[in-house]
Write a structure and sequence with these properties.
The protein has 12 helices and 23 strands. It is α/β, with parallel strands linked by helices. The protein folds into 2 domains: 198 residues, UDP-n-acetylglucosamine1-carboxyvinyl-transferase, Chain; 183 residues, UDP-n-acetylglucosamine1-carboxyvinyl-transferase, Chain, CATH 3.65.10.10. It starts with a strand and ends in a 5-residue tail after the last helix.
């Protein structure tokens, strides 16, 4: 599929932010492990989150999906081993979170995905969970999927590097309440994307489980416990909303985005500070954000260590801004759907943008114009390049359908807002 984006003069309207992808993944999985019934209000049904939902069903969870609600009959942690290989397609979150959860099933589970997913590093979590009594290995002995996870989560002490993926930490935390003995997890080195782990602990608490964190030693302690079924509301997603917010910032616009919590633990909430510092007005109420853009942005220096998913969004903003934008602290973005530092640099350069690739980020000096670019099958890159198209016009994005991974209604919503419609 190709998307051709024409120049827009303005962006006006009121829109509801899509539900959080990160919270939806975790809600599906934790509700599946809980005792009793959970009703999940406003979950996101996208290609990525459906990979988690279907994985939970493969482990024996009964799930009823409705438009604005998902009813989950929890297993109480008594999972069955999937009858077939578990194919999570392109969902890295599902792969990482399910790696530990699979150890709660009695026999061997094989987890794999598409070619992109099979290239993501998993060795750190495999080594870490082995110390907890779990048999876990890569079928190709290269630290990547396909993975084999054998049932049996004893618990005890383990450690993991904090500079590859916070999802490794979240994975161990989510499964640890069902270990035979308490789990102590030490995070070594630089603890990247910590807000995502805070989100995990937040939702664990909502389902009745406590994971203690000692900041002085970067260590977690989890006693044997049981999740309890509950009614849970999935909040709006700052990651997906960042494209709406950035579009409004770049154009002559006034946009209200509802369903965004002011006190959210999502690290990507920092997009509000970023666009404000680049030159637009931002007003935040309890559950909504108003953005007023003037069509002129100024470059800035920003560290995205705790919000790596914002890299494509901020790179697009830099491509449309005057002056220089420096993005740092995101070396771990090289291990996403693509090497996002490299693919952002490669595709923006096709649009006439001066981009220098650094080890942990990008240096961008505006100058974008139209052209033909490729998504590299990365949903966030599609949406970021779409933003540039709205500003300069004449941008054609190849292999664009992957936006459905996280934001299935994205192009339709953008077209309506360009028309000034309330959605």
């Amino acid at each position: 599929m190709e998307l051709e984006v024409q120049k827009a003069d303005s962006l006006m309207g009121v829109v509801k932010a899509p539900p959080s992808k990160s919270y939806t993944h975790r809600a599906f999985i934790i509700a599946s492990l809980a005792e009793g019934i959970s009703k999940l209000k406003y979950p996101l049904y996208s290609e990525d989150t459906l990979a988690s939902l279907k994985s939970c069903q493969a482990f024996g969870t009964q799930i009823e999906t409705r438009d604005d609600e998902c009813v989950v009959q929890g297993t109480g942690g008594s999972l069955k081993t999937p009858e077939n290989i578990l194919d999570v397609r392109n969902s890295g979150t599902t792969l990482r979170l399910m790696t530990s959860v699979a150890s709660l099933a009695p026999y061997c589970t094989v987890i794999t995905g598409d070619s992109s997913l099979r290239d993501r590093p998993m060795q750190d979590i495999l080594q870490s969970i082995r110390k907890l009594g779990i048999t876990a290995y890569s079928t190709r002995n290269n630290g990547k999927a396909p993975l084999v996870i054998k049932g049996g989560f004893k618990g005890g002490n383990t450690a993991i590097n904090g500079d590859v993926s916070s999802q490794f930490i979240s994975s161990i935390l989510i499964a640890s309440p069902y270990a035979q003995v308490p789990v102590d997890l030490q995070v070594n080195g630089n603890f990247i994307s910590k807000p995502y782990v805070d989100m995990t602990r937040d939702i664990m608490k909502d389902f009745g489980v406590k994971a203690t964190y000692k900041s002085s030693g970067n260590a977690f302690h989890i006693e044997p416990q049981r999740y309890k079924g509950t009614d849970y509301i999935v909040e709006g997603d700052y990651s997906s909303a960042s494209y709406l917010i950035a579009a409004a910032a770049a154009l002559n616009s006034e946009l209200t985005v509802k369903n965004l919590k002011d006190k959210s633990k999502q690290g990507d909430r920092m997009i509000l500070d970023i666009v404000h510092n680049m030159g637009c007005d931002v007003k935040v109420k309890r559950d909504e954000v108003n953005i007023k853009g003037y069509g002129n942005l100024q470059g800035l220096d920003v560290e995205l260590k705790n919000a790596p998913d914002l890299l494509p969004t901020v790179a697009a903003l830099g491509a449309m801004a005057e002056g220089t934008t420096r993005i740092s602290g995101v070396e771990h973005a090289r291990y996403k759907e693509t090497d996002r530092i490299h693919t952002c640099a490669s595709e923006l350069s096709k649009l006439g943008v001066s981009v220098k690739e650094e080890v942990d980020g990008l240096i961008i000096r505006g100058g974008a114009h139209g052209g033909v670019v490729d998504s590299h099958h990365d949903h966030r890159l599609v949406m970021a390049l779409y933003l540039v198209g709205l500003k300069v016009g004449g941008v054609k994005i190849k292999n664009a359908s992957v936006y459905k991974v996280s934001f299935p209604q994205f192009p339709d919503i953008m077209k309506e807002l360009v028309k000034g419609q309330e959605i």
